[in-house]
Amino acid sequence: MTSSRPSTMPAYRVQDWLEQPRLTDAPVPLPGRGEVLVAVAANGLCHSDLTMSQIPAEIGAALGWRVPFTLGHEIAGTVVEHGPDTAGAPPPGTGVALVSPASCGRCRYCLTGRDSACPNGLAGRGYGQDGGLAPFVVAPVRSLIPLNGLDPIAAAPLTDAGATSYHAVRRVLPVLGPGDTAVVIGVGGLGGFAVQHLRACSPARVVAVDVSAERLATARELGADETITGIGPQPSAPAQLAGAIRELTGGEGAAAVLDFVGTDATIAAGVGAVRPFGAFGLVGAAGGQLRAPWYGGLPKDAEIFTFQGSTIADAQAVIALAAAGRIRSVVDVFPLDAVAEAYRALHEGTLRGRAVVTP
Ligand code: NAD
Ligand code: ZN
Q1: What structural domains does the chain harbor?
Q2: Is the CB of 212 under 6 A from ligand 1?
Q3: CA–CA separation, 219 vs 216, rounded Å?
Q4: In this structure, which of 6, 106, 183, 258 has its CB flanked by the most CB atoms within 10 Å?
Q5: Which residues of 117-128 are buried (b: 16+ CB within 10 A; e: fewer)?
Q6: Closest ligand 1 atom to the C-alpha of 309?
Q7: Which tens digits make up the pLDDT trace of 17-69?
């Protein structure tokens, strides 16, 4: 792409701090040193996008974000142009998925394969920098994973929903033996993949929890063995859900509970349903808090963890699982001019799968 390069393109952007995102014009980016230009074929929409326009300027500045920026951090497309110093980059025409979390590749976390905790990756494509809800985006060579024929519409949601849920599942695999139970609370975009990763990678029985009957039906199709209807915020709700999980496990509790909702109620229920030497992972960003006394409130010898995003190795693993037909993406496809409608459906919980926009 040289003389034929357009100068502007439509993009769904956060124009200023605390402003609702909208479809507007943006410059077509030039790939910098170590970067390639990618023609975006598909961009998945994440629940966390809904919070991007609630970031005040002070916090945005502290994270190294700048406005305006284009939303979208689940991207797959085709390499169209190389910037300088891109030796080893896949040639133009190659289909690629873009690793969603940003990372520097130089710090001690990156150098030891723990790049999800890179302190230099707080701003990235779709969060403080231009993302994939536009026809073109730039990306460092380090973030490119060849698709090898995998459909970009299926691949895009793998880069965050697929990889973040894999990061959680990989972490709890050591406590999941035959006869054990793993519980997934909130089987939407991320949780639907968590059910599949558990099915593909562990011998555990999988229990799905959600407030939506449609999501529970999809979770069954994706491999959940049992389903439980989720809870609201009423004070008795956590004990009720923990009780339902205990009942399914002969009173013992689940070996692992992964919470993709993250309210006070789901955290209390999840922690309360873990058996000794089990694990509770908090992924959902609803802002809930854990309040539990050391005696009687926490499962003995269990692990409680949280994290953000995923590693490059996680993204490579889920692309490989999808290419091998072991997991699949359930998607609802929207054109770029229907992106606001797609976000509304995500917010209202009326999607069947992951919303994917095709710029
Ligand atoms: P989603 O909207 O696709 O899925 C959420 C699911 O939770 C829906 O199926 C919904 O019906 C269900 N739900 C809502 N309230 C519930 C309740 N009380 N009990 C049981 N189920 C309930 O969202 P998503 O894109 O899959 O994201 C899930 C969460 O993960 C969000 O909070 C998002 O911000 C967060 N997230 C975290 C990371 C991370 O790195 N930690 C990365 C991406 C997304
Ligand atoms: Zn780093």
Answers
A1: 8-160+310-358 (3.90.180.10), 163-306 (3.40.50.720)
A2: yes
A3: 5
A4: 183
A5: bbeebebbbbbb
A6: 40
A7: 999 999 999 999 999 999 999 999 999 999 999 999 999 999 999 999 999 99
